[in-house]
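To illustrate the input format used throughout this study, we show a single complete record. The first block contains the structure-token representation of the backbone; no residue identities are included at this stage. The design step must infer an amino acid for every position from geometry alone.
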């Protein structure tokens, strides 16, 4: 079943995991986990390799490029426009620029204290957004630090009002909102803040009350969409991100795992117009405008420890990955990679005369199936049916498992007593 879900995750933050072996390693895992969105962080004016992005799109995974604070400059550079044009040609649709412009660290101490902070940010954001839209990529408004610095809901409200006042309808038609979502603060239930400002009218910036809920949680989109409707007279699409630099504090890994699964259930199970029970507790629908929620991280990188990670540093799935894979399997949300080839005949590298003799033996099979003849496992992974001539090709268990994980059907082939089976 090739279902598009709202489930996403952050890929590796460095550039060492885009080559073919890494792509072949992780693509089946992502599809088995029901992933339909992949966050690619790259704070360089160098494109992520085209084959990696192409493979994602071909398999129904939408890449979300995050450039962060790559270029805090009033005028976009020619290199930036070239990068955007390249990504557009490859099919990228979403790109996020800048991060946490409501914090002093974004501006520096001198600029931070100057007046009209939000107006100055919109001055900065507009020319970059214009280039993105020029090349048919939707700009993602940067994530704001939640409930800190220049209060995020106030910053967003002033920013949208500024865009409206400047009459930039071209931007409002393509703009995507974004937000960091705090999932692992166990002092607040997952339902914290549901209903937004309309349900919690006493919530005010810089004031915390045990009797009033706010935007610090899974339902942050309810708060941001209320602001959008008031400022621009319509809701705007929004992408949610688990904050990559904000790890759970003193939360045991089993509890992180349990909460992750509960969030995914709310994301994928609750219809957009009703409330129902998940694991004995009532769960309200998340905002219909949410395009995806991106968890973080896929893999623990380096020596860092992060209980949110779905895989260990050596690539072994942790308990959370096993639970999500099982859940997606039950719901019919897991997938296998698409195959560009129908049949592949895998052969070893042989001397020319030896290869000719073997092909002569296999001629009836080749005439019947017309397979693509390949000489490497990476090429064989592109085929739905992979044929392995006995006596010529003997794959190790990990290689056979890799073929199976890619959804390949493996066929032993006896060239001597050959009988052609039906498709």
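Output of the design step:
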């Amino acid at each position: 079943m090739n279902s598009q879900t709202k489930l996403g995750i952050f890929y590796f933050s460095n550039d060492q995991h885009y080559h073919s072996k890494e792509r072949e390693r992780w693509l089946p895992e992502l599809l088995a986990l029901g992933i339909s969105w992949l966050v690619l962080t790259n704070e360089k004016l160098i494109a992520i390799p085209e084959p990696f992005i192409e493979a994602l799109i071909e398999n129904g995974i939408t890449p979300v490029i995050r450039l962060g604070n790559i270029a805090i400059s009033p005028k976009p550079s020619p290199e930036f426009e070239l990068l955007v044009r390249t990504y557009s040609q490859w099919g990228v649709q979403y790109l996020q620029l800048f991060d946490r412009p409501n914090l002093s660290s974004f501006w520096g101490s001198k600029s931070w204290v100057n007046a009209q902070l939000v107006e100055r940010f919109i001055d900065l954001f507009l020319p970059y957004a214009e280039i993105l839209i020029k090349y048919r990529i939707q700009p993602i408004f940067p994530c704001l630090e939640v409930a800190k610095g220049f209060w995020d809901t106030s910053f967003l409200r002033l920013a949208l009002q500024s865009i409206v006042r400047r009459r930039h309808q071209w931007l409002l038609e393509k703009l995507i909102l974004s937000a960091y979502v705090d999932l692992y603060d166990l002092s607040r239930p997952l339902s914290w803040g549901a209903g937004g400002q309309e349900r919690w009218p006493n919530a005010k910036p810089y004031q915390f009350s045990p009797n009033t809920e706010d935007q610090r949680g899974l339902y942050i989109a309810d708060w941001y969409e209320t602001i959008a409707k008031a400022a621009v007279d319509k809701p705007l699409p929004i992408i949610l991100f688990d904050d990559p630099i904000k790890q759970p504090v003193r939360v045991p890994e089993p509890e992180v795992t349990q909460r992750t699964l509960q969030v995914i259930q709310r994301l994928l199970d609750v219809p957009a117009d009703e409330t129902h029970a998940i694991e004995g507790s009532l769960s309200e629908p998340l905002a219909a405008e949410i395009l995806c929620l991106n968890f973080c991280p896929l893999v623990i990188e380096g020596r860092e420890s992060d209980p949110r990670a779905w895989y260990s540093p050596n690539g072994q799935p942790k308990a959370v990955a096993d639970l999500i894979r099982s859940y997606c399997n039950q719901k019919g949300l897991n997938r296998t990679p698409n195959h560009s080839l129908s049949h592949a005949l895998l052969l070893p590298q042989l001397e020319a005369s030896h290869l000719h003799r073997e092909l002569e033996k296999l001629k009836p099979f080749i005439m019947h199936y017309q397979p693509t003849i390949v000489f490497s496992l990476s090429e064989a992974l592109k085929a739905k049916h992979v044929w392995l001539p006995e006596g010529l090709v003997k794959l190790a268990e990990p290689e056979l498992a890799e073929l199976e994980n890619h959804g390949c059907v493996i066929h032993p082939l006896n060239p001597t007593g050959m009988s052609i089976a039906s498709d």
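Structural context for interpreting the output: The two ends are 21 Å apart (CA to CA). Residues 62 and 321 are 20 Å apart (CA to CA).
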